[in-house]
Amino acid sequence: MHVNASTLPPPRNILLASDLHAHGDRALDRAAQLARQWRVPLHVVYVQAGDGCDLISPMPLSWRHESAPAAWVERKIRRNLGHDVGELVVHVGEGEPADVILDTAASLGCDLIVLGGAESTAPGAPGRVTEQLLRRSPVSLLVVKNRPRGAYAHAVVGTDFTSESRDGLTAAAGWFPAARLALLHVLDIPYTSLWLDEGGGEALARMEMATMQAFLSSAPLAEEARARVVALVEHGHPEIVLRDYALREDADLVVIGAFRRGLAFHVLVGGTSRRIVPAMPADVLLVRAQAD
Fold it and tell me: What's the mean pLDDT in 28-38?
């Protein structure tokens, strides 16, 4: 049984994974905006490098008083934000970044991890950590790529008619009550021209839209949320169609569902984290399915 989105609360604790570099400012701003919108604490985890190349010097310097790393990180974060974020709690750990982030989220009971979308092939760099978290995180992940200009206004939700993608829809409707929602199913058909000739395309389109409407009707949405949903069916490669829709319609969030088990996540028709997340011009929310 799925929880009704009208009563599904937003995340109770947000964890921002930050390396304090400039490319993480967008994720910081978005995490702070969500914490204010949902009136929840914002936890920040900073992972110290184990190779001695860290922003925080392990040795006390003659020109300043020694201070705890967490206090230094908090000062920097508050200075970068430039405004009050409410309840802000900083955690500093050392070790493999993905391990520290997941352990911190588990110990705090966080239901959403926010991180920047910078890509890199260097060990421990944001892109690599992002991929590890996408594969291993038992909680939802928000990969931030764009500077926020307020609450999310237009979200496109990918669906393959599974219960996991239904959870993505109900989460998007409940977490972002002011956003327009596009529910997009992408059918990738080999030899499309053979299927769609001689009027076959029209019949297939009717069948797909009927399936979409049945899926939407089965989703436990409040009436006001259902009224915000526009159902769309397209043909092509999922990551290409999602990307093109986000670009053409100026969507600021792409929502995709994931299996409950901690394996490489399932997105639409055979999608993978390596293909879907880097391809999107918008922020990407990976929703971990609710327990039945």
Answer: 94
